[in-house]
Amino acid sequence: MPLSLWLSLAAICAMGAMSPGPSLALVLRHTLGGGRSSGMMAAVTHALGVGLYALLTVWGLGAVIEHHPTVFRVITWLGAAYLAWLGIKALRAGAGGALRTQGQSANLMIAARDGLVVALGNPKLILFFVALLSQFVTPEMTLLQRMIIVLTAVVIDGGWYTLVALGLSHSRVLPWLQARAHWINRITGVLLLGLAVRVLMG
User: Fold this and answer.
1) What crossing angle do the helices spanning 104-120 and 22-34 adopt, rounded to 10°?
2) Secondary structure class of 158 (helix, strand, coil)
3) In which residue ranges of the chain is pLDDT below 70?
4) What's the rounded Cα separation, in Å, for the pair 72 and 62?
């Protein structure tokens, strides 16, 4: 793959990762409630979910999803339901944060689950990969070139949200965020519920 083409791919993946949405809200909430390790766990498993969609795209299965609206609709509804559930949990968490009352291992498992499911349940990711990433895939591409595309998407997504978790968990930043946890949970909850409604409305 030419360097110029790869740079274009990396730029598109970076813009997709950095755009505000449920993924950013998720990493923020897990970092706030469970600390740096929980935020980073959510970031890593979110990247794995992104990698799965990228893998499906380079295999050509993205086109299958695109041409089977029923499959896409079911994925959309499941994703919206999960986003709504996360939003309600955030609204009910209050100032303490629902995650803080559990042990560290439980926090990590919840963060891992949420990161993966939010990635897999976000129909925007399907559209992103089908519409944009598939433009970089050609029938004559080698297996190595296809893997470069997948790894680029995974590393950029995981790297960005890991940096977010590290920045938010800084010793000067985290106490400031935790002091405002009630409002952050409210904003996160409203954002997630709004995104769920938006997904259902198409």
Assistant:
1) 180
2) helix
3) 61-66, 72, 75, 93-106, 123, 130-131, 134, 171, 173-181, 184, 199, 202
4) 10
Mean pLDDT, the chain, integer: 78
What is this structure's pTM? 0.72
3-state secondary structure 109-151: HHHHHHHHHHHHCCHHHHHHHHHCHHHHCCCCCCHHHHHHHHH
Give the CA dihedral 192, 195, 197, 199, nearest 10 degrees.
-140
Q: What is the pLDDT of residues 104-123, one digit of tens each?
A: 566 789 899 989 988 887 76
Distance CA 109, CA 117 (A): 12
Domain total in the chain: 1
pLDDT digits (tens, 9 = 90+) for 130-158: 667 767 777 778 889 889 999 999 999 99
Residue 144: how many other CB atoms lie within 10 Å: 8
Short-list 37, 41, 54, 28, CA closest to 120: 54
1 within some domain: no
Q: Look at residue 106 and tell me if it is in a domain.
A: yes
Using CA atoms, how far residue 81 sits from 10, 184, 188, in Å, is 31, 21, 16
Domain that holds residue 38: 22-200
